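Q: I'm writing a short explainer about Beta-adaptin-like protein for a general audience and would like to include a description of its predicted shape. Could you first generate the structure from this sequence?
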Amino acid sequence: MAPPAQSQRSPSPSQPSGKSEVTDLKTQLRQLAGSRAPGVDDSKRELFKKVISYMTIGIDVSSLFGEMVMCSATSDIVLKKMCYLYVGNYAKGNPELALLTINFLQRDCKDEDPMIRGLALRSLSSLRVENLVEYLVGPLGSGLKDNNSYVRMVAVMGVLKLYHISAATCVDADFPATLKHLMLHDPDTQVVANCLSALQEIWSSEASTSEEASREKETLISKPVIFYLLNRIKEFSEWAQCLLLELVAKYVPADSNEIFDIMNLLEDRLQHANGAVVLATIKVFLQLTLSMADVHQEVYERIKAPLLTLVSSGSPEQSYAVLSHLHLLVLRAPYIFSSDYKHFYCQYNEPSYVKKLKLEMLTAVANETNTYEIVTELCEYAANVDIPIARESIRAVGKIALQQYDVNAIVDRLLQFLEMEKDYVTAEALVLVKDLLRKYPQWSHDCIAVVGNISSKNVQEPKAKAALIWMLGEYSQDMNDAPYILEGLTENWDDEHSAEVRLHLLTAVMKCFFKRPPETQKALGAALAAGLADFHQDVHDRALFYYRLLQYNVSIAERVVNPPKQPVSVFADTHSSEIKDRIFDEFNSLSVVYQKPSYMFTDKEHRGPFEFSDELGNLSIGAEATNDVVRANRVEANDQDLLLSTSEKEESRGASNNGSAYSAPLYDASSVSAAASQAQSDSLISNLEVAGPQASFAIDDLLGLGLPAAPAPPPLKLNSRAVLDPATFQQKWRQLPISVSQEHSLNPQGVAALTAPQALLRHMQSHSIQCIASGGQSPNFKFFFFAQKAEESSIYLVECKINTSSAKAQITIKVDDQNTSQEFSTLFLSALSKFGFP
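A: Of course. Here's the predicted structure. Afterward I'll give you a sentence or two in plain language.
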């Protein structure tokens, strides 16, 4: 029986069907290697294109190395480029093959065509094979003396590459001195710029070990060099101008005459079409005049027009970068830019990130003369279809109100926002009205009249609802329905998912109780009962605190919860003046765009204690998770013990040894004052101050608390089948703040067990805590664990550094849900304790 016929399929030219394709290419290249027939270069081009395409998609074509080198014996520049690309790709990974290319690259370095000489020298210096540096010194020396500027330019960068391969070889060949000579005497400005860039990098690296290199580095910012380069700056490319201007910004002039000479030389750079050149020039002007206050202010006036021109021209990305720098200057000198506020009005076609930055600038430049116009413009944005921008505009109005003295018109605008039938507008306005009342309590009558008409059912955002509740508690004496609104919110306690709202509700009910006790008595009892039963630790603790405070002394409780308040004069700034100065020192860099100093996004300790990109690849991936879940032991506070009176607590401790670590301060209940602070609440509050052991029961009866104690929250359970990939772990580790950082001592059993790290991994897996990476050698070990909360998406990340010689373990925990960080820490340490940890 004949075999079935195979289907005829022509392979794609970019996807070989197997090794036969590479073999065919090898045969064809060998046939063309020595051919001089007409059109042979065109045939080579087609074959070279196939080889490059295969290499690009990851197919190994290193077996064609010899044939590619043989076919490169041509004057066709396109073929040379493709061959150099191929050679550079495989040379570093195959040093033996790279040796085969030396002869033909050195030969091409002596070609008559300067383009081929430059390309060959660039490819030769890009091999980056340490064993071949001896073959690089000669061509580089010849290239630095070449008659063609392109070859010299390539040779200068080749010297820098040689330095990174073998610094000693580069210095011994005296290349830095040659580069310095070229920088000061070469007629081509691109060569000069390359020399400047290479020397800065070489001498900066050598300065730490060589005094001569340190002195040479200082000569780069000496007066003769600076003024020589500045006199030629117009001949430089835009990139070279930026490089030179960065160098000039480091120069310290001897006197004011030098400062003015430099500024005169650079005056026309402020009109340059390239934004990078303008910003670099502005940095020079600002740095030079820092010690001259009057001139520094004039510089602000001078640079204002170029910056505003750049903002209005160019791409949105460029506008954002320039606006970021302009924003920094506005924060330092808002009065200079106050008359140009209209330049910061938002255009309909601008991206949201540009609009947001402009809103911040409008807030910064607002003063007594332009506030009305700016607020009017911002109010127009409140109806914007772009909801985030509408929110930002309302916040901007609030910020302006908090920094101005005459806020009459602004308050009216904010109150109009409350009457708009848009949920997000009402929500933002409520938050701002709360802050406004904290600073200007005299406006409470007007604001409360409008706020009282807002139904709490129509406010869903947590921050807005918290602000409304704060006003209900703070001004409950002026709002007739305040106790009943708070009572309704308390009845729907279980439907409120935000802990922030529940915390504000507890405090507001307490405040309202001290001002209108008969109407709030029921709501306070329900709020305390719900708070004591709340699973959120902060809510539970605050309710317990209020309960114990009422039990101790109602008058003291009122002074604690609702004391006389002074108006807030200044709200905290997110950035300190020191950080702003650091950002200003790094003008014309990413620090200005990120609005944070460079160390905050480059230093390792600010990215996290472990840099994954460098070290994660060296760690081993943890073993597979097991299905068995062993629940860790937990030590919980006995809330029932906390709710007992002092005498009852002593009796219960005598009868049972429950091991509770809580101890309340002792006091004499009979000495508690029976007077309340307000006359209208004397009769009710006096009932709370019952002397003797029955005080807590009297409060329970009065407030309707039928619970002797609040139930403890359920123990934390972990998902035994949690899965997390290393990339997600790395991203979350960088983003999340440190929740718990503890150091523990190891006992001898723990140290002995850690001689085999896999035992720790298996032990933690039995507790549903997985190891994603581990590494190190004795005595230092590092483990990365993760866990997931059962039936939820909350993730727990752990870094565990162990030093067996000092018997110490440093444990760092980061979590998605900060509310369960301590609980997970207890569970984690409990699991570790079974492995020999204390």
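A: For your explainer, you could say: Residues 1-17, 608-693 have pLDDT under 50 and may be disordered.
Q: Perfect, that's easy to follow.
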